[in-house]
Amino acid sequence: MDASDVRSPASNAGLTPSQARTIRTAFIAMTLSLMLGLAIVIGSIFYIASREDSGGPPAPGIAEPAQLSLPSGAEVKSMALTGNRLAVHFVAPSGEGIVILDIASGREVRRVKLAPGAPAPGQH
To answer: What is the pTM of this model?
Structure first.
């Protein structure tokens, strides 16, 4: 093996030095473009996430906040969500109750007063 058999990697690929330089320049330009694009996307995400709400009317499809009226001194004990119905169990000085709200409209569907009574069958 003599010195004429030793070739550069570019000559093994059949590229001239100017072609190799062009490919290297294109690779660097594409890498920088990709990094710049990624930085713009990440910056846009942070910008959108950090904006404060304009305080205007809610967007279409977003309902106004529902308001639930409970007796004076009432304390919410639990809530359960099924479909578009929310059941709120509360305890007030006047007694316990459950209020069922329609989530879509924000309206009260039913109010149930829980009255103390005899234990259910099987309970002592």
So the answer is: 0.44
